[in-house]
Specification:
The structure is a single chain. The protein is α/β, with parallel strands linked by helices. The chain has 16 helices and twelve strands. Strands 1, 2, 3, 4, 5, 6 and 7 form a seven-stranded parallel β-sheet that branches. Strands 9-8-10-11-12 form a five-stranded parallel β-sheet, with helices on both faces. The longest helix has 17 residues, at about 55-75. It is globular, with a radius of gyration of 21 Å. It starts with a helix and ends with a helix. It comes from Bifidobacterium gallicum DSM 20093 = LMG 11596.
């Protein structure tokens, strides 16, 4: 975390956020009026805050899966507020929020100081609405150290909440959350994208052809150049045409409507592949939900290995420890049955559903 971010912590996330975004606060009070006027006076509202508006397809899929899930199980109105837009809505939220309304926070892998701005926003929301029921969708927690200034701040901000519920998507995060936030309810459930129904995004009767390589090249990459060469050699030896794709696109602002188009493209890419090789968490999950054979390798943290435990019984998804295992794993998954147990996965979310 840089010095500027550390200075913001000393001033306070909600105070800095409001002062830094005062023009958005005032503008939003006028521009979002109709959205709040449309809410039913006799129904609860779930405010889903912090959804992705950037070109990380995994995070966009999390946002879409969250909206699918809430609309399926929440009996009331639902309002989506994308990340960085919170301050536009703050005055109306303070005015319109009722005691039985819910705040639902974006899940993912950004509960930590690598992508610290997301945690800033969540801390600010917690500070603004400490007595509201707040539910954080399944997250991976990953701080650079136990002495992280942001972690210490988050412990204070979350500790003041009277009805906060944190969901972890793998065991290591569940244990870490319970240790760091001992007065907060912590539950273990799968990654929310495992509940996503891909059928609205994929053309019917799509045909499969080729092998897609979906490999990362960022801070979380753990594969060496030699590993890459080995993986591509194994892919070429499969005899299938080899293509490349990624779940992160060049920087761009993504509207809610644009999210649908981007997810349609990537899910169709997976659904039309005969096999996928990936070291991206949502590469593995996209393969699982589209019933696409997949060989997956770990990244630089524990999230892929941890989330894999929820689907380790799927014969068409193989987690391997090294690139040297890729050839045998490709042969195995390409000859395996491919049926995704969505109903069974949904049952794993009962603790979350009960809070809605």
């Amino acid at each position: 975390m840089d010095k500027r971010a550390a200075f913001k912590l000393k001033l306070g996330a909600s105070r800095v956020g409001r002062l830094s975004n005062m023009s958005d606060v005032m503008k939003g009070y006028g521009s979002h009026r109709n959205e709040f006027m449309a809410l039913s006076s006799d129904r609860r509202t779930a405010f889903v805050i912090g959804t992705a508006n950037y070109a990380n397809l995994g995070d966009l899929a999390i946002s879409e899966a969250q909206m699918q899930y809430v609309r399926r199980y929440f009996d009331g109105d639902v309002m989506e507020i994308q990340t960085t837009k919170f301050w536009e809505y703050e005055l109306w939220l303070r005015r319109a929020m009722r005691p039985n309304d819910l705040i639902l926070l974006q899940g993912g892998g950004n509960m930590g100081d690598l992508y610290y701005w997301f945690e800033f926003e969540r801390c600010a929301i917690a500070e603004c609405f400490p007595d509201q029921r707040i539910i954080m969708f399944p997250q991976t927690i990953s701080y650079s150290s136990d002495d992280s200034e942001l972690l210490a701040y988050a412990k204070q901000a979350y500790g003041r909440c009277s009805d906060l519920h944190l969901f972890a998507r793998e065991h290591i995060s569940a244990q870490k959350m319970a240790e760091e936030f001992p007065t907060t309810d912590v539950e273990l459930v799968p990654d929310i994208v495992l509940t996503l129904d891909p059928t609205p995004f994929v053309p019917r009767h799509v045909s499969r052809c080729g092998l897609a390589m979906v490999l990362r090249n960022d801070e979380e990459r753990s594969l060496s150049d030699e590993d890459w060469q080995m993986l591509f050699s194994a892919a070429e030896e499969s005899g299938l045409p080899v293509t490349t794709a990624d779940t992160v696109l060049p920087d761009q602002d993504v509207s809610i409507e644009g999210r649908t188009l981007l997810l349609s493209d990537i899910l169709t890419t997976f659904a039309s592949a005969q096999c996928v090789v990936t070291d991206r968490l949502h590469g593995m999950i996209f393969a699982a939900i589209t019933e696409t054979p997949c060989v997956v390798l770990s990244n630089s943290n524990h999230k892929i290995r941890g989330v894999y435990q929820w689907i380790k019984d799927l014969p068409y998804i193989a987690f391997i420890e090294s690139a040297q295992e890729a050839r045998a794993a490709l042969r195995k998954v390409m000859n395996a049955p491919t049926t995704y147990p969505r109903d069974r996965i949904l049952q794993q979310f009962e603790a979350l559903r009960a809070l809605l």
